[in-house]
Write a structure and sequence with these properties.
The chain is mainly α. The protein has one domain. It has 22 helices and no strands. Helix 5 runs antiparallel to helix 18. It is globular and about 70 Å long. The protein starts with a helix and ends with a helix.
Length: 674
């Protein structure tokens, strides 16, 4: 069996080597004109400077938590925590470093052909995808070998990944949306200049934000989902099947890496002019390879094909959530077109329509997740052995995330294409270049929306699997809703996603207000900006976003870690169980609603800009801009952060389960109540 663990690590190393190969393919590509390189330099330097500052804060945080873990749990868990945090930061660093080089090279390639531009943008995203899965599987494999199969110590790895992911998502989300909102409200609505116009002082900060939020933040999000699902499956599998149960999800993840590499090669080799079809082809090919290999693997490890069905259910749920997300957020469908139509009545009806669609969009994914849970639980024999059923749910999460390599590649492609369009606009390239980058960006908007839906679905299944692992760790077989303490936990847990969303939305609002004031000041006080004879002070806007993101990310991140520990110690394991259950339910629904409403508002605005209902500059267009501006922090800050919140709170409960089991219910012990 140890040879198989070594084999898993080797596959992870292959993924990292493939990432290096793709990196060189991007680095070797042409950079374009001096003006293009100058603009790309602003974006690259701003993004890397922010990441460096953010990681400085996070390193202090990680070191502090590691010290607490040494004394509260054990030194092995602390070591795993440090490794998880470090690898998460490395994945973000490598992915964003290449993404901020791929943008200008995509713009340059668009001067030649759409195929070349697509290949470079996708290759840049694939570096992030391969870094995420490669570092994740290598880290988990090494820890299993170091700890001689003691899976409980590995939970620290998931905690490290989740902690970094939350700060990265919240910080990146605040950064990008402060810049985006400021750029839109003053640049588009007040000054009447186009998107990505070099005269807009916030335009560089906006493009930097696309990278720190949608590349580094998104990569950290799926990195912690990826490792969290595998850890929960290993934990539950070792209980019911021993080493075979722990081995299966690791080998499945390795199969997913190989399948993702095949899918990436298919995309890069395709000559189809339809970018969406090419990306879908690679994604579906990777999924089919996983299904075929899982059927064989299940029979080899367990002597039957039962484990295949939860994996297939997870993959299918992911695909269906992606398709329904596209239905609610793509301008090709009636729901987004309806929002655009109602924008002719003004901003209020645009907002009402978008909120309505966002709320309604919670129904299909919830049904798919429920079906996936039922199938996974009962096919694995949950009726006879509940732990085996919970293992099935964990396998469905691993199945959904098995193709994370290509999923992240397709998602990270979006902001690279978006940046390429911005560079083309700012460098004043010919209209046909911008036409190609706009096509790639339009596909990127769809892939980003699908990626967010995928992240939400995987978060729901992963958090349920982690919750099941927590229940096993504290020997909790049920939560009694007639017990007032369980209801207390449920109510507090249900409230937390709303409070968390409020903190992140208020942070964006505060930072965006500063950005609006600064952009207005520059337009008013610096002569020659509107004439294009004087460059704006881009660095002032970059500093506003950076300062706001680093300051405002701290409180939400700390709350997500402190609250579950405090509730568990004060009230005990069952109240904490209720807290996690409440957070999962409201967190998943809020994430779906905000992500889809924001995507719908964004594409409704773009649909109007295509020429319908008066086109750019019309009354409907102004309403669309307002809706898009409201939707920006919904879909790129608060919504994505919900995914990490529910997973982080679940993994915190799992890691600190021994401490809570031993010292929990402090209040009742002090009062002498048993």
């Amino acid at each position: 069996m140890d040879l198989l663990f070594v084999g898993v690590i080797v596959v992870g190393i292959v993924a990292l080597l493939f990432a290096v190969y793709l990196s060189f393919a991007v680095i070797k590509a042409e950079e374009g004109t001096p003006r293009m390189q100058e603009i790309a330099g602003y974006i690259h330097n701003g993004a890397m400077a922010f990441l460096k500052s953010e990681y400085k804060y996070l390193s202090i945080f990680a070191a502090s938590v590691a010290v607490i873990l040494v004394f509260a749990i054990n030194i092995e868990t602390a070591m795993a925590f440090i490794l998880g945090a470090m690898l998460s930061m490395l994945a973000g660093y490598f992915g964003m470093k290449i993404a901020t080089q791929a943008n200008v090279k995509t713009a340059q390639a668009a001067r030649t052909s759409q195929k070349k531009a697509l290949t470079i943008a996708f290759s840049g995203g694939a570096v992030m995808g391969m870094a995420v899965v490669g570092l994740g599987i290598v880290g988990l494999g090494v820890l299993l070998m170091l700890f001689s199969g003691n899976v409980l110590n590995m939970t620290g790895f998931g905690l490290g990944a989740s902690s970094i992911a939350l700060f990265a998502r919240v910080g990146g989300g605040i950064y990008t949306k402060a810049a985006d909102v400021g750029a839109d409200l003053v640049g588009k609505m007040e000054a009447g200049i186009p998107e990505d116009d070099p005269r807009n002082p916030a335009v560089i900060a906006d493009n930097v934000g696309d990278n720190v939020g949608d590349v580094a933040g998104m990569g950290a999000d799926l990195f912690e989902s990826y490792v969290g699902s595998i850890i929960s499956a290993i934990t539950l599998g070792s209980i019911v099947f021993g080493r075979n149960g722990a081995l299966f999800p690791l080998v499945l993840a390795a199969i997913g890496i190989v399948s993702s590499i095949i899918g990436i090669i298919i995309v890069r080799a395709s000559h189809s002019p339809n970018a969406q079809r090419v990306l879908n082809m690679g994604t579906y090919a990777a999924g089919i390879f996983v299904l075929i290999a899982t059927w064989i693997l299940s029979d080899m490890v367990f002597g039957n094909s039962l484990a295949f069905y939860p994996v297939a259910a997870g993959l299918m749920v992911g695909v269906l959530i992606g398709l329904t997300t596209e239905l609610f957020t793509s301008a090709e469908f009636a729901r987004v077109q309806r929002i655009a139509y109602e924008s002719m009545s003004g901003s209020a009806t645009n907002i009402i329509a978008g909120l309505g669609e966002g709320m309604f969009s919670t129904m299909p994914p919830t049904i798919f997740i429920v079906i996936g849970i039922i199938v996974s639980y009962y096919v694995m024999g949950g009726a006879q052995n509940p732990t085996m059923g919970l293992y099935g749910i964990a396998l469905s999460a691993v199945g959904m995330l098995s193709t994370t390599g290509i999923t992240v590649a397709v998602d990270a492609y979006g902001p690279i294409a978006d940046n390429a369009g911005g560079i083309a606009q700012m460098a004043d390239l010919p209209p046909e270049v911008r036409e190609i980058t706009d096509k790639l960006d339009a596909v990127g908007n769809t892939t980003a929306a699908i990626g967010k839906g995928f992240a939400i679905g995987s978060a729901a299944l992963t958090s349920l699997a982690l919750f099941a692992a927590y229940a096993e760790a504290v020997k909790m077989t049920s939560i009694n809703l007639l017990n007032p303490l369980s209801l207390v936990g449920l109510m507090i847990g249900g409230m937390l996603p709303f409070m968390f969303s409020a903190l992140t939305l208020k942070s964006v609002s505060k930072a965006a207000n500063e950005m609006v004031i600064e952009v207005r000041r520059q337009f008013k006080e610096i002569p020659g900006i509107m004439e294009g004879t004087t460059l704006p002070e881009y660095d002032k806007c970059v500093k506003i976003s950076t300062k706001a993101a680093l300051k405002e990310m701290i409180l939400p991140g700390v709350l997500a870690i402190v609250v579950p520990i405090a509730v568990g110690l004060l009230f005990g394991v069952e109240t904490l169980g209720g807290l996690i259950a409440g957070t999962i339910v409201t967190g998943v629904l809020l994430a779906i609603m905000m992500s889809n409403a924001g995507g719908a508002w964004d594409n409704a605005k773009k649909y109007i800009e295509s020429g319908v209902h008066g086109g750019k500059g019309s009354f409907a267009h102004n309403a669309g801009i307002v809706g898009d501006t409201v939707g920006d922090p919904f879909k790129d800050t608060a919504g994505p952060a919900m995914n990490i919140l529910i997973k982080l709170m679940s993994i915190v409960a799992l890691v600190f389960a021994p401490l809570i089991l031993q010292y929990g219910s402090i209040i009742f012990k002090l009062l002498g109540i048993e």
